[in-house]
Amino acid sequence: MSKQVPVGVSARHIHLSEEHVRILFGEGASLTEMKPLSQPGQFAANETVAVVGPKGSFGKVRILGPVRKRTQLEISRTDAFALGVNAPVRESGDIAGSAGITIQGPAGEVVIEEGVIVAARHIHFHTSDAERFGVADKQKLRVRVGGERGVVFENVIARVHETYALDMHIDTDEANAAGVKTGDMAEIVE
Amino acid sequence: MSKQVPVGVSARHIHLSEEHVRILFGEGASLTEMKPLSQPGQFAANETVAVVGPKGSFGKVRILGPVRKRTQLEISRTDAFALGVNAPVRESGDIAGSAGITIQGPAGEVVIEEGVIVAARHIHFHTSDAERFGVADKQKLRVRVGGERGVVFENVIARVHETYALDMHIDTDEANAAGVKTGDMAEIVE
């Protein structure tokens, strides 16, 4: 059986805590939905922030909602070099000891001591997809993508949940190295 | 036999024609060597230029010498998006129909209609290395690099010549996607 999965390329983005939304956008502010994402309930917000590192900065970094318990900035390694931060490759939510950054919004500024990561590539599987493909939660997969720049990514983490939609998430470095874009198909090779 | 090859990560850089050196740096100017590169006779020059595309620009792009017949700017796909140019993946020297760019030096400016490429990943083999590894010129190889971000690159082009030193050239997107840096080792897997 061919195990095909659609690719979703994640540009740099940020998840904010409720407290940080309040500081950055003002008392009573909340995130407003611009468009839904592939994972049910998740959305790209109309709101953006600037992030400032010791070597460089990015304006208009898209906020993904809804709010989370802890603020988390997800960047590529290329971005990390440009900002001058030493962001580790981590699974979402695993931010202990990761890099810090300054975040600027229209109403205020927040300095976080940790929360900046390079997201480890992963595939979201609905429980039924995982069953069909014979894949277990947290399993590490090898996945082939691309044409003339074809690449096999190792250590692609399977994340299985009944609320997930089938989608492989890679960052812009990985997408560019493989010459792929959102909507292209990847194949699990083992 | 394990077929190990050192990795060299190419940041964005430019090769200039003699005429363009004259226009950009002035009559009688020539490139001066800052440091030698891994390939014999090649060097990073002290001189840099700015490159300006429709969407963005980069200052201080390193010139690699010596001068070539035709000017060629080598960038990553991430760079191509930032500049706003549609640079194809090509082997060095194969620039027909590639992207254009504006190049600015201290003495003048040049607009090239073609010459901007994303360099196809490749390995330089000295003739003796190629013989030892059983590799032929222009053969396409699969090459494994990296640790936690391990990647197998497909379509890595073998370039065999008696003046070459053993080195695998990848760009910054590819290096960042695989989490490797110059001096790390790659392994030819077939």
From TrEMBL, chains A, B:
Cofactor names: Zn(2+)
Alphabetized InterPro entries for the sequence: PTAC
EC number: 2.3.1.222
Pathway per the UniProt entry: Polyol metabolism; 1,2-propanediol degradation
Pfam families recorded: PTAC
Catalysed reactions, as listed in the record: propanoyl-CoA + phosphate = propanoyl phosphate + CoA
Keyword terms, alphabetized: Acyltransferase, Metal-binding, Transferase, Zinc
Top-rank lineage group of the source organism: Bacteria
Root EC class: transferase
GO MF annotation terms: acyltransferase activity, transferring groups other than amino-acyl groups; metal ion binding
Example of a GO biological process term: 1,2-propanediol catabolic process
Protein role: Involved in 1,2-propanediol (1,2-PD) degradation by catalyzing the conversion of propanoyl-CoA to propanoyl-phosphate.
Family that this chain belongs to: Belongs to the PduL family.
Listed name of the protein: Phosphate propanoyltransferase
UniProt source species: Paenibacillus nanensis
